[in-house]
Amino acid sequence: MQKIFAYALVFILLLPNLSAESLQTGGYYKSFFTILNSTSLNESVTQQKSFMVSNQVRFNISYEITDLLSFNTSYNFSPRWQDGPFFKENHFNTGIDPTSYRLVDLNSQIYPYENDSIENFGIFQNLDRAFATISTEIMDIYIGRQTVAWGSGRVLNPTDILAPFTFNELDTEDRFGIDALRIRIPVGTMSEFDTGYVLGKHLNFNKSAFFFRSQSNFMETDASALMMIFRNNFLIGFDFARAIGGAGFWLESAYVFPHILRDEDLLSSKYIRMSVGLDYSFSGTTYGFTEYHFSQAGMENPEDYFSNLIQPAYTDGTVYLMGRHYLALGMVYQIISLINLSIQPLVNMIDKSSSLSAQIEYNVAQDIYLSLGMWIGIGQQPGILSDNSTAQKLDSEFGGYPDICFSSLRIYF
């Protein structure tokens, strides 16, 4: 099956009658140096430091054959040097693997080959985009690997459940590509109908998704409604965004009925998620926002965090935060024209823990950026149950998150 991807890529690259006007190329090189200070629970609570040097080269190619038909591809090549803990799954960020919404895929691990164990060095690849666009007078049709995402929330998006970013993702520039057939029909100047089918792995219907979304603007308000079936779960979502005075306002919500297409009585597991917030530009150099997030899928008691991770919201719905009430704040300040400082805390309002991020970015030259940043978990650290030295317990959510310091270099071409 990997040969199919290779042939498709070669076909696009070698299409006849290429011209400078119809072919566009670009991409970037990114390098991250990351130090992680994590908590390890054995017979006692200990701290463990790990490091990672991650390099990524991305190539973007788009080719417009006619006004009717065009192709887009993106390929990532990523060598990584890192300690073992970075190759292990982070059990704090639960949820499904976004690659499950890919019909077939390249083997992401180039070296060591296939299923060989990774010690400190690995080479990875990702065919992240590979889709055709058919544009007609009444609709646009997208076929293949593409990005499908919605939501007006700044930090947490209840309706973005196919391949979302976690709040502490270091690189959020490109959404993870998933395989879909999507149709977008414009209705008027600022309205559209958007529908599609997202293919599950090996065309498994139980791992697929279908969505229908409408978007419109009335009374100076952008409004959208979403209905989705994903992995046998049913979601109803709404999203509103508008200006209030000089500030921006948004309200995004999703109501999920787990496993509604199965012969299972899981109505007690239904849940609602909501994000509401305001943002404001105080001057030409300062921007700030605040956002409240409610997740009925979460728990009120930290002792129940781990046991709750088996619920459909976490296994199917890409929910990963463990509590119910969160407050996010954010500020971006332009120190000088080429240097920006951003600070963003996310607070669990039940257990009073928080995750604090800070980053400073320097635009060294055109298309070249340097950044220094950190993510710090603040709260009571996890412990071990007195009657079982191997069982973990949490007294706070973000107190169990690792502290991360990083530097990055980004070069665009």
Low-confidence stretches: none
The helix/strand order is: HEEEHEEEEEEEEEEEHEEEEEEE
CATH superfamily: Porin
Count of all domains: 1
- Indicate the CATH topology: Porin
Q: What features would you highlight for this structure?
A:
413 residues, Porin, 18-stranded antiparallel beta barrel, two-stranded antiparallel ribbon, 21 strands, globular
Question: Overview of this structure, please?
Answer:
The protein is mainly β and 413 residues long. The protein has one domain (2-412): Porin. Helices cover 5% and strands 54% of the residues. The chain has 3 helices and 21 strands. It has an 18-stranded antiparallel β-barrel. The protein has a two-stranded antiparallel sheet with strand order 19-20. A hairpin with a 2-residue loop joins β15 (325-336) and β16 (339-348). The two termini are 31 Å apart.
Lay out the secondary structure.
Elements: H1 2-13, E1 23-41, E2 45-64, E3 69-82, H2 84-87, E4 109-111, E5 121-135, E6 140-146, E7 178-186, E8 192-198, E9 209-218, E10 221-230, E11 233-244, E12 247-257, E13 271-281, E14 286-295, H3 312-315, E15 325-336, E16 339-348, E17 354-365, E18 368-378, E19 383-385, E20 388-393, E21 403-412
Antiparallel strand pairs: 1-2, 1-21, 2-3, 3-5, 4-5, 5-6, 6-7, 7-8, 8-9, 9-10, 10-11, 11-12, 12-13, 13-14, 14-15, 15-16, 16-17, 17-18, 18-21, 19-20
